[in-house]
Design brief:
Its cofactor is Fe cation. This protein has 374 residues and is of the alpha+beta class. It has one domain: Sandwich (Jelly Rolls). The strands form 3 sheets. The chain has an 8-stranded mixed sheet with strand order 1-2-10-7-12-5-4-3. Helix 3 packs across helix 6 and helix 4 packs across helix 6. The longest helix is centred in the first third of the chain and has 28 residues. It starts with a helix and ends in a 14-residue tail after the last helix.
């Protein structure tokens, strides 16, 4: 019996060493998933294969909650009559309390800027490798970094995507720190999305029954970053995943996605497609907002499927302060608490929360937020 146990341990250790070698070899190419596709692979490497447990990790598990649609909220009359604003706030409230996801249209960012941002991300990822890999690094202190899978060495399964990350506020990068091929549109898009973020914080504050500036005064607007994803066409999409199921470790995220689709949100234990809408932006609430709202708002788990069609491009703007020396402590908002509604979470800084989140990687059985419950 002891001999069998030792054999199992030895096999496990050997398998782990082999995986670590494969991960290092993949990382050392600095070419990302696109490099694999450019090499003409027809079978995906072992490190990308998701376990076929219940089918929930791959595109073999389609959306089964087809009657539910992610709300689309029109912001056009936001500054109009009081009753119109109240109606918008109510829609934001319902979406935030139920699925934690909604899309906004007439949000004030011109379609041509959205289109150019998508094009800029595509241009960056499709540059010659010699040019692109100059930006390759895994140093979280750098304002610009390009890599494949930020949690490559923590997660059980690598995701079928490459990304570049830019910290844009409160201390933006110098122009020369960003790639010239998408520099101007990145700064322009960042300015626009910052303004939209302030509008959304007002709506979310009012949806919590607070004054419009409450969340802004809590400095929820003080930092944001852009994460620009490139999901190449996959030869075996049913065996891997574009982005593993997860929630976001921020206040909220504004997502620009192209027309291809693949984003899904978990609603009532069913996967629901977040179908692309021309000119719309997807808003999803993050873990820190669920924490400070004391579970009134939901930070929904979501994922991105791999696809035979590609590349799929998306740009996530994360409103968070973890990339700056911010020591502000966040806990459930006092105005929302009572004897009947006691605090459900411990206080934490955003930086400490994100460090805990990153230490677990995306493919974790216990959501990081659960570790902060009282």
């Amino acid at each position: 019996m002891m001999h069998t146990h030792l054999q199992q341990n030895s096999a496990h250790d050997e398998s782990k060493r082999e995986q670590e070698q494969q991960l290092k070899a993949f990382n050392d190419t600095k070419a990302g998933v696109k490099g694999l596709v450019d090499a003409g692979i027809t079978t995906i490497p072992q490190i990308f294969i998701a376990p076929p447990t219940d089918g929930s990790k791959t595109s073999a598990s389609p959306s089964t909650h087809s009657h539910f649609q992610i709300p689309i909220i029109d912001l056009e009359n936001l500054q109009g009559h009081v009753a119109e604003r109240k109606d918008i706030v109510k829609k934001v409230q319902v979406a935030s309390e139920t699925c934690g996801f909604f899309q906004v249209v007439n949000h004030g960012i011109p379609k041509e800027i959205l289109h150019e941002m998508i094009e800029g991300v595509c241009r960056f990822h499709e540059q010659p490798l010699d040019v692109k890999k100059e930006f390759f690094n895994r140093d979280f202190s750098k304002k610009m970094r390009f890599n494949s899978n930020f949690d490559l060495y923590q997660s059980k399964v690598a995701n079928w995507r490459d990304s570049f990350f830019c910290t844009m506020a409160p201390d933006p990068p110098e122009p020369e720190e960003l790639p010239s091929i998408c520099r101007d549109i990145t700064f322009l898009y960042s300015d626009h999305v910052k303004r939209l973020g302030l509008t959304l914080l007002e709506l979310l504050s009012e949806a919590l029954g607070l004054k419009p500036k409450h969340l802004e005064e809590m400095e929820c607007d003080k930092g944001h970053s852009l994460v620009c994803h490139y999901y190449p066409a996959c030869p075996e999409p049913d065996r891997t995943i574009g982005t593993t199921e997860h929630s976001d470790p921020d206040f909220f995220t504004i997502l620009l996605q192209d027309h291809i689709g693949g984003l899904q949100v978990l609603y009532q234990n069913q996967w629901v497609d977040v179908k692309p809408v021309d000119g719309a932006l997807v808003i999803n609430l993050g873990d820190i907002l669920q924490l400070i709202s004391n579970d009134k708002f939901k930070s929904a788990r979501h994922r991105v499927l791999a696809n035979k069609v590609g590349p799929r491009i998306s740009v996530a703007c994360f409103f968070s302060t973890h990339f700056q020396p911010c020591n502000r402590v966040y806990g459930p908002i006092k105005e929302l608490l009572s004897e009947e509604n006691p605090p459900l979470y411990k206080e934490t800084t955003v930086r400490d929360y994100v460090a805990h989140y990153h230490s677990k990687g995306l493919a974790t059985s216990t959501p990081p937020l659960e570790d902060f419950r009282c």
